[in-house]
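Chapter summary example.
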Amino acid sequence: MSQLSRHPLLALGIAVVFVIAALLVFRLSTGAKTETNKTRLVTVGIVSPLKQDLNIRLAYTADISPNQVVNVFSRVDGYIAKLHVDKGDFVRANQLLVEIDHTDYQHAVDQAKANLSAAKARVSQQDAVVRNAKLTFDRMQTLIKDRFVSQQDLDTAEVNLDAARAAQESLQAQVNQMDVALAQANTNLAYSYIRAPFSGYIAERNLDTGAYVSSATASTSTMSRGIMSLHDIDTVRVLIEVVERDIPRVKIGQKAELRAEAYPDQIFEGTVTRIVQALNRATRTMTVEIDLPNRDRRLKGGMFARVEVLVGTHLQALQIPIDAVSRLEESQYVYIVEEGKARRVDIEIGAQQGSYIEITNGLTGNEEIILSGKDLVHEGTPVQTQLLDPVKSKT
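The structure predicted for these 395 residues follows.
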């Protein structure tokens, strides 16, 4: 029999000592873990607010329109004899575009010239009649003094002179009419040659050679497409609709920036050139026109664009990354680091530029703003900080 079996109290005492020791080790290890959990720090990325000028912009979407658009019609009736241009061609002002069959109009000119010549010949004949009547009348005035002719003869000569002069005036009026007819015939002949009213591109061609055109189409229908469509895109324009509250901020001469989907990496600059001084009753907006030079003709009519109008500048505005702002219902707030702990600060925001937003109230500009990890903290959370590159955070 061993010594422990002979001394049971000793064995019991040893067992109790082991149990107590085990409990102490367990409690010490548990307490250490609890203390470790209590002192664990959250790592957050911080940035400092920026103070720099902030351009205030109003953003819109719009379609690009040519500076001038005209649907080309014929001012005379007839068949299209020849098309000198086609879709996509660039034409100069006064360049010949279309010829209407002008055979009848040439004949009309020739006929008007012949009629004018005949009318002038009749006037020349009547001039001789007038001269003869005048000589007769003068002779009668001389002879009546010596009583070689009667008063009736003199009166007859005077009446004949007046009649000759009246006939002369009538024939001269016919000459004037023939002059007008000739001018109209020449005009119609000139209209059979359709020329470009300005330089631009042929955007549409709707008719082919041999098609019949009528002057009545142009004078009675504003919806007709015409023979072709001509677009001037040396300058392009966009029309934006400004809401009522922003109307006082938009003025003629303000600069605008345009981005087209076709050229996503390029910014086109324009100017506010016209403001319609009336609101659309249906939309409560006012139309504003922006013109953009387009000498390289890269912008085309019908392109979709995003437009920003520069309406002012806030000097040395306080700005932070918009991703640092949290929202709760209608309020906005940020977390800052103060004495190693996170603290919530309510803010008021202003204009936005890119990924940064203006802070109008709540910050002084000296705070450390939590940008990365803001969702892991709350009021009073112990944190350790890591400074982020403000340039990278802004982009």
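To summarize the output: The chain has five domains: 3-38, 43-51+315-394, 59-65+233-314, 74-98+197-226, 103-191.
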